[in-house]
Amino acid sequence: MASILDFVRRKPVPAARPAAVAAFVEGFSIEVMPRTAAKIADFRDILPAGTRVYLAHIDGTSMPEMLAAARRLTDEGFAVMPHFAARGIASRDELGRRIAAYADVGVRQALVLAGGIDTPRGDFHEAMQLLETGLFDRAGFTHLHVAGHPEGNRDIDPAGGEANVMSALARKDAFQRETDARMAIVTQFAFEAAPIVAWTERMRAAGLTLPVHIGIAGPARLQTMIRYAMACGVGPSLRVLQRRAADLTKLMLPFEPSELLAELAAHKAANPGFPIERVHFFPLGGIGATTDYLDGLAAPARRRA
After folding, report:
1. In sequence order, what are the beta bridge partners of 109?
2. Do the Cβ atoms of 273 and 197 come closer than 8 Å?
3. Domain with 221 in it: what CATH number?
4. Is position 9 within any domain?
5. Is 187 helix (H, G, I), strand (E, B) or coil?
6. Quick one: CA torsion of 261, 283, 164, 205, rounded to 10 degrees?
7. Angle between helices 18-25 and 287-304 in degrees, nearest 10
8. Which H or E run includes 45?
9. Distances (CA, A) of 43 to 143, 225, 305
10. Which of 13, 109, 217, 224 is 20–30 Å from 141 (CA)?
11. Alpha-carbon distance 184 to 86, whole Å?
12. From first to last of its 305 residues, what are the pLDDT tens digits of the chain?
């Protein structure tokens, strides 16, 4: 298997025009937490109708908070996809109760992942264990997304590389083929196109067919972006931020993902088989900052219309 650092030797990916970038991010999803969602009067004022909203279940957030946010977003017309973190769920019964509670408020989608808790609260420690219970299918869930890591994950592969990560994705890929679940990989954010492209090529070379929803960090102050990137285990592409931080004139300016999006859009246009199906935004600088930025990206398409 190719090294996770092979992208270092690759040629730069060319950038796309604004209209192509607007087309690339069309149908984007976004992640929110219940407490930050509560600060938005009405998501219909800032998001396109039907946008998929991932509802992050941060350790310490209660299920009543999660369910209230899910109900509110569903009532406003959005496709809500709450997190189900295996290590934070104590038992099969608890998983069943959570799924049923979300189903009662109209949720039919889930992001199923291991979670960042070091010591599991019960028997579950990985996403596949949740999928294999069959409980999501019995509750009528139609979309089940799983996590991906274009630059590896030290929690899963402590020594580096990506053997364990790829093995886990292979099991999820097989699960998709053996069931009628509509699945996709939603990834951790990165800051360079080349490692993302190289990762998707390694996946396809390994026979994996799951579509990819690529994680992108929304605009934020550089210090904020670096803090989140280090906490989330972003890999070598962190150097993009570090180079910018070395320029003191840019230290206080917002960092935007425009260059990255342009490069990914260009690669998609030149390579229709590129498996990125959607773009998923992490609003690290605030929901409003990200949706304002996306409005700006959509402007070329509106002018053409």
Report:
1. 143
2. no
3. 3.20.20.220
4. no
5. strand
6. -20
7. 120
8. none
9. 22, 24, 24
10. 217
11. 18
12. 344 434 344 445 555 678 889 999 999 999 999 999 999 999 999 999 999 999 999 888 899 999 999 999 999 999 999 999 999 999 999 999 999 999 999 999 999 999 878 899 999 999 999 999 999 999 999 999 999 999 887 778 777 778 888 999 999 999 999 998 899 999 998 989 999 999 999 999 999 999 999 999 999 988 888 887 777 777 777 777 777 766 655 656 778 999 999 999 999 999 989 999 999 999 999 999 999 999 998 865 554 44
Tokens representing 70 are 């899910």
Does residue 3 belong to any structural domain of this protein? no
Four-CA torsion 163, 57, 89, 122, nearest 10 degrees: 60
Residue position matching structure tokens 């992490």: 282
C-alpha 109/C-alpha 249 separation (Å) is 44
Based on the structure, what is the number of domains in the chain? 1
Residue 10 lies in a domain: no
CB 214 within 8 A of CB 165: no
